[in-house]
From TrEMBL:
Pathway the protein takes part in: Lipid metabolism
Pfam families referenced in this protein's UniProt entry, alphabetically: Acyltransferase (PF01553)
Keywords: Acyltransferase, Membrane, Transferase, Transmembrane, Transmembrane helix
Protein name: 1-acyl-sn-glycerol-3-phosphate acyltransferase
GO BP terms in the entry: phosphatidic acid biosynthetic process
Length: 246
């Protein structure tokens, strides 16, 4: 894409993504006051993701979803290089709750929806991180799965290499004794870079759900080994995609 075309394409993408959210926002407002209705956010997220990507011509390649059960709860652990990662989980097999940085709550309208349905965390505050994890565990108890980005935010300066993982996602899965699902997102950082004024590239969005990892019988002593295992699964898949693409 030429730079001018990228600029025009980025404007079109912004119109589509924001416009669709504004259309869906009244439906979010309807479900927000009633806790048991929050599960319907899954359908709104799915509509937003599939429709927006189709309208801007971004194809999707979702792999491994057949390994997962819509009736089971999981903790999804994914690499986090782009804001597009959040939208990607509109393709999860069932309702998910996100744990996201508190700055997301400052985005007009979207932030209101996010903090009412999902979990925000101020990673600079140990107390807030603890309370956010407890809130996330409570929401898992409402028959929802949890999406956590174990890098703790978009921190890598050496893309597509991840930074080391934090403990929260693994503590959540072990506390609830539910399976972890590593998820690789190889391309989102190319499509929507984490920049102050990003230019969007039209590229296939690939998302790989790996085999669930059972935490039955695990304790917090198992976290270091579990973190390393999940890290290697996600990173090796990302590396393989980019090696093939070269």
């Amino acid at each position: 894409m030429t730079n001018l075309f990228k600029q025009l394409y980025t404007i079109w993408c912004a119109i589509v993504f924001v416009g669709l959210f504004l259309i869906l926002f009244p439906f979010f407002l309807i479900i927000i006051p009633v806790q048991r209705w929050h599960k319907f956010s899954f359908y709104l997220n799915r509509i937003w993701a599939t429709t927006a990507l189709a309208l801007v011509g971004i194809q999707t390649d979702i792999r491994g979803r057949e390994k997962l059960s819509a009736s089971e709860q999981y903790v999804y652990c994914a690499n986090h290089f782009s804001l597009l990662d959040i939208l990607s989980f509109g393709f999860a097999p069932s309702t998910v709750i996100y744990v996201g940085k508190v700055s997301l709550a400052k985005i007009p309208l979207f932030g209101y929806m996010f903090k009412k349905i999902h979990v925000t965390v101020d990673r600079a505050s140990i107390k807030n991180r603890y309370h956010a994890l407890q809130e996330a565990l409570d929401k898992i108890g409402e028959d929802k799965s949890l999406v956590m980005f174990p890098e703790g935010g978009i921190y890598s300066k050496n893309l597509p290499k991840m930074v080391r993982f934090k403990d929260g996602a693994f503590r959540a899965a072990i506390t609830k004794q539910i399976s972890l699902v590593p998820v690789s997102l190889p391309d989102n950082w190319i499509i929507l870079p984490d920049e102050s004024l990003p230019l969007i590239s039209r590229k296939k969005m690939r998302m790989i759900f790996h085999e669930p990892i059972s935490t039955k019988g695990m304790t917090f002593d198992d976290i270091p080994q579990l973190k390393e295992k999940v890290y290697q699964i996600i990173q090796e898949e990302i590396d393989e995609f980019h090696t093939v693409a070269q």
